[in-house]
What we know:
The protein is mostly beta strands. It has a 16-stranded antiparallel barrel with strand order 1-2-3-4-5-6-7-8-9-12-13-14-15-16-17-18. Helices cover 10% and strands 50% of the residues. It contains 4 helices and 18 strands. It folds into 2 domains: 1-47, no CATH class; 56-431, Porin. It is globular.
Amino acid sequence: MKKLLISILxxxxxxxxxxxxxxxxxxxxxxxxxxxKDMLGLYQKFNYLRISGYMQPQFQFISEKGANTxxxxxxxxxxxxxxxxxxxxxxxxYARFNQSDExxxxxxxxxxxxxxxxxxxxxxxxxxxxxxxxxALTGGMFARPFGYEVNLSSSDREAPxxxxxxxxxxxxxxxxxAMLTFEPRVRTHPLRWxxxxxxxxxxxxxxxxxxxDSYKDFxxxxxxxxxxxxxxxxxxxxxxxxxxxxxxNTRYIxxxxxxxxQPVFIVDSSLGNMGGKAPRKYAGADIQLVLNHSSxxxxxxxxxxWKGKQSATSISSETPGAxxxxxxxxxxxxxxxxxxxxxxxxxxxxxxxxxxxxxxxxQGMDIKEGAGNFHSADIQFKTLGLGYLNYINENLKLVxxxxxxxxxxxxxxxFSKNLKDNVFTCRLQFRF
Length: 432
């Protein structure tokens, strides 16, 4: 009980006080007594602990009951409007500094709690080298270092959700692995503008409960951090690369070809396909521009483009979360995200456009039943998002956002016209 009381008092001091107030409270501790010594030791131990979090209650309306959506969890078949807690995150960060006040170790743990359950989102540690002050090693569960939108926190992102392509190819954004980072931490270093991340990951991310094959994803991102190129204009940019694959637990591998001048999937059913590697290779580039006008106006422009090759199933191009026993379909894809944001004081209006084409070798009415072996996973989707945000204060944000979703018109049953899947989202974000 004594230790518990000490711990509670110490955490209150750390979490609710700034440095000056903490010092005042610690001056009141009688270190000549055992309890006082224990409290001082615990205070020093947790001196670099930070707790933060946010929650996002929201109301949504979709054009048709049960329509499929990437604007959050799926709607039930009899539902076209709902209240939901989109995210409820609590994060613990701990940093340890050496005698020279240089950070030597960082630890992070974050979980998400909603009406759908509680799940871990981040659980990683990072070691810093303090000889040249340029390298760091991260291990555990953390965001894949690919692209800009994947790594932009859901609490900071203007649109309620990441784009369709991000959610399909990088579901839950995070994966288990290890990553080496080059990022000079000394202001006078000639490469202080450069950051390079490169890591090895399981591949399935949080979409699966465990690694299901021995193939790993190599992911890297290299870019320059925001720099001023003109008065009031800041720019940053990066390129990304992923090289991975999944185990071929089937002899049936489908890939795109042409037959009688028409695009079709051709099957390779060689016995030698069993145990091979179905490719997943992505390349991406992103750029961000921030133009600060005379106060209180600011304009933000972001653009990001991905292309590559994805192996999945006939009915989905999503990165598999478990071993696939069904035939594997390998497709060439591309997609992009564009943001245009205008700030006027605490108010912000936003325009977002994204597309995801899971199969760039076939378009429109060529996607049909029968000989081509095409499915809904080959259809291109485009989304135009329009939004208004009000940053009421540093802890509270209002988001009003409407997504107009358009799918490619095809010869497939159910996809001969545009689906009714537009979504309106009204969200409050509470943050501490």
